[in-house]
Amino acid sequence: MGWLIGVDVGGTFTDLFAFEPESGRIVVHKVPSTPADPSIAIVSGLEGLRARHGVDLSSMERFAHGTTVATNALIQRRGGRLALVTTKGFRDLLEIGRQIRPRVYDIQTDYPPPLVPRERRLEAAERIGPRGEVLEALTDSEAERVAAEVAAAGVEGVAICLLFSFLNPDHERRLAAAIREKCPGLLVSTSSEVQPEFREFERMSTTVLNAYLQPQVTRYMERLGNAVDRLAPGSVIGINQSSGGLMSIERASRFPVRTALSGPAAGVVGAADVARRSGHADVITFDMGGTSTDVCLVRGASAEMTFGRDVAGFPVRLPAIDIHTIGAGGGSIARFGADGLLKVGPESAGAEPGPACYARGGTEPTVSDANVALGRLPTELLGGDMRLDANRAKAAIAPLAERLGMSLEAAALGIVRIVNANMMRAIRAVSIERGHDPRPFALMPFGGAGALHAVDLASELGMRAILVPPSPGILCAQGLVAADLKEGFVATCRMPLAGDIGRIESELARLHALCRDWWTAERIDAGTASSQLVVDMRYIGQNYEIGVTVPAGDAIRLPAAEELARLFHQAHQRSYGHHDPAAPIEIVNLRLTAIGRLPDIAPPRFGGSGETKPSARRPVWFSADGPADAAIWWRPDLAPGTIVTGPAVIEQLDATTPIPPGYQARVDTGLNLVVGAAA
């Protein structure tokens, strides 16, 4: 088997992780991102792997990619010009939504304007009933009339979302066929394909987002596919989904909404893989990059999942790893707010011009500038490819320090403490606020800046162990190589748990047939194929359901009603702190995920010098008490079993890990750094 290469495009850097299964060789690389066209940085990174590390790109078997193109398009409102076709009388559903305020106590804040204005929301005379029955047939002339209106609208794409089409998709399919015949080449998204499940508004919103993203993502996927094919003809391209699994580049172009949280999901997959190997199965991941911080709770080396969330203010109904994101990163800008208090983020200096220390024209003080001024960051990154200017960093912070009436180092410490407080709230949101005590968990920092802040956060939260993976700045790219192929299928079948279970089993058999078709289409060997069943259930009368994971393999059999009830009561107790054994339960959805397992990544092998002495020393500020004389260690030289006692700074190509006084770091057999209070 040839090289497996994962590429994660972040706001500041593009990370590459290459693994050769036959030799077990692992190579990592990092290049600056090119926001205008991410494929440029990808090509540069691949060429760097070949030139610097001798990676034979012609033998690359699989290229896995995590992309922010969809997310950025939503945030910046740079999607396509759309039309929406819906059942007559429901054109305003997209704007009415759930009639709840985005912020309960802010009467000035509204939801973002709809992506399709009212004049391009078209109505079709048809009606499907709540049991899938046809109440008003869609005539051929009506389908042709709607297609003509779409053609006259001058749009790049169209979303079709009809009432109850998740039960009977015939009308949506006929409308899509009529539109494609009238407008060849027009991108068409139907809700019965994008996400065929109940809840009209969320299904419509998800379908509209998919159509909105299709023009830009399709163009990007074409550029990416051509670029990779030039460098590595015949290699298979996998695009990461929000659920943490890979899909083909063709399906990514067809369902771009599934990539909305592609990059962060890959990081959690990589973290779960490291956690499983390290013996720390329960971790809270902490991914701090240049623009944002993503946190996720992982139990038993498996990430928490969600099936509904907001992306850039729009509701999306799709399976996704349950990641909490805030605007806090190395590029977060420190400034005084209208109240005269110091704030940090969510505004970011990004990759261009970047923090002042990058010497690319940035002048505003950022978190990275604060870490440089405190001596926590070295003056060289990426193995010397990128230099940091400490004088520019200090010059950017100086006006803040003067206004605060304190020393420059004290102001820099203040910036770090404020961003730490912001990130601590995010960790609490996925742990304490959901009934999980964070103290028994290990904190796993990654991203370029995660390890810089890990000890401070763990100390405040009472977490005793910090697990820094071998390549924390490349972990998202590593997660792409560790990710399996996945495809999700869903069926809505609302009925009491005590009802006719035969109907449920019939729907499950249909979903499993779709899984088998997908395994065949993806050429997945039977020995590597598996599936995962989740049953959405709720007490009758509740508004929202809970996804209950059911252990299942190839031969899926729905558990007995008593077992399903027991699993549901457990999940309800865990989520809400109570359950009612006497209350009737209903099933809402069946979710079946088809999985094609890919080769495991071999654990990294130690190839350093085993040096037991620091390479240098420098003054580093860990507190306001003054600088400490810190030992500087080069991480690739630290053999398993090595213990580094603070004050120290452990540097490597892709990250920096400060070890304050009173703490120590031990290198375990998997080359992870296990950081905790000194004995």
Give the structure's gist in a few sentences.
By secondary structure, this protein is α+β, with helices and mostly antiparallel strands.
Written account of the structure:
- The structure is a single chain.
- The protein has 679 residues and is an alpha+beta fold.
- It has 16 helices and 37 strands.
- Strands 13, 14, 15, 20, 25, 26, 33, 36 and 37 form a 9-stranded mixed beta sheet that branches. A 6-stranded mixed beta sheet has the order 3-2-1-4-11-12, sandwiched between helices. Strands 6-5-9-10 form a 4-stranded parallel beta sheet, sandwiched between helices.
- Helix 1 packs across helix 7 (200-231).
- The longest helix has 32 residues, at 200-231.
- The radius of gyration is 26 Å and the shape is globular.
